[in-house]
Request: fold
Amino acid sequence: MIERSPVFDAITYIGMLIGAVLVVVPFWITLVAGSQSLQEVSQVPINLWPSDHLWENLQAAWSRGDLGPKLLNSLIVAVGVTVGKITLASLSAFAIVFFNFRARMICFWLIFITLMLPLEVRIVPTYSIAANALLPFQVILDTLGLTALIEAVSSVRISLEWNLLNSYTGLILPLVATATGTFLYRQFFMTIPDELVEASKMDGSGPLEFFWDVLLPLSRTNMLALATIMFVSSWNQYLWPLLITTDRQNFGTVVMQLKALIPSMNGTPDWNVTMAGALIIMLPPLLIVAFMQRWFVRGLISRDK
Amino acid sequence: MERRAYYKNAVLPWLLLAPQLILVLVFFYWPTSQALYWAFTLEQPWGGGNSWVGLDNFLGIFRDRDYWTTVVRSGFYALVTTGLSMTIALMLASFVDRSLKGTKLFQSIYVWPYAIAAPAAGVAFRFIFAPESGLVGSINHIWPGIWDPATNGMHALLMVIVCHAWLGIGYNFIFFLAALQMIPRSIGEAGAMDGARPFRRLLDLQLPLIAPTAFFLLIMNIISSFTDSFGLIDVMTDGGPFDSTEVMVYKIYFDGFKGLDYSGAAAQSIVLMLLVIGLTFVQFKWVERRVHYH
Reply:
């Protein structure tokens, strides 16, 4: 390091400290407010030190937001998206990188282009598909005249229908259908030396053995990174779950409950309960990011470079 | 680099790709083309399918003054959020890049906002900025009515922007730090020997060298300000007061799902999609050009 002057070091520390305060303040306020009584939280100016009502506020938020079942739903969705994404991404990247077939690049671009348009941007049309996820296939069959043909032959009218509203599949599948993971895996697979493939071939193993025995163990770091990124982003989804679950009671996720926890305009301003609830909802992804930091930072960066 | 050790198999790659391709078809290509269809048609009020209306839906939104207000507001939102978040993150990254003692602790704290759901941060910031509560609202006790995001649109917009900028710090920091750490130490040392002070070096040496990362982040932040703003606004302001925090995604949601104007919402979606595609395209072009430097 150049310039080891104490003055400059001091400036650096002060800057870092201000930054840390900036980043931590919202967390601290959430914790402080979540631990105070209604009376304490309504004080102006507020006392910036935690009080001892945290546990009762957590309990109040837990029952008001129905957080138990909602946390479970969030967990199911987050794990579902993570596992689904890793599985599909590794398989499709494997096919794109290690197989020589004519449509290889077309397939790559078909998948890659999905990176361009996040779900929020195409929310209206994606929602329409949720009512019947099999509609595209029905239309394909109809336009090819297959529906009419089959009806004429067997007098069975094909009508494909698969409603995704209020279901875990509906919450999970659209989030799996993007290219993030595929791209990350592709980048990693490209770095695998050809010799490894040759050696595996010489040992007499086929492509699937190579994938399972060589590639997957090698990609463990990637997998952890992708898992962290996917878990956090799917846990934090808001707009999509909001649309696809009309039956909030059974299929609502925990992030959707935040709005229900906010004190109403003319109700009791019990922000202490709200903040305790927010604390519970923030915690799982925060813990994962804090513990997995080394892995996922690497994954994030290699994804886009 | 050309890869030589390919597997050859007529069926297997398709089996491996099938699940992903099917999902992408059903949840990406179909809905996107559906949006195009809706944008150029209008649903008959008495039922009986959609009729072709050409560019009417687009002309409809383009003639709507409210729409342009929303577009301008979204642009303002995007620029201020991005500028704020990236500046703070870059400063923090350049501090951490000096790797003084104890820096690791700061480094791990700065990443935290990345983990937080936008609506969760929205709730925390709504409390922090609530005019009646005892934080920012305290100044109302000194100067009554000076801060009120519940009725003052500019205050409300500012509150959402600050929260969004905070959320982006973690992500931006990670990328800036990685980029800074990739710059060889010798370059900074050479600059110092020539008498360049640290701030000068940041501007003249480091910034040009991390320009590709900065540009990538710029685009990602702008896209995120279009997409992630929904959760924030829905939790913090509901688009109000008087639509003063309504940005493009929120308007699409509102017109499409509350107003049930699918054609109008689809046309707005197409505009937003083109915007995002345009930005991504610019970014790819830049990354391509960057290759020639090395």
Observations:
- The mean pLDDT of chain A is 85.
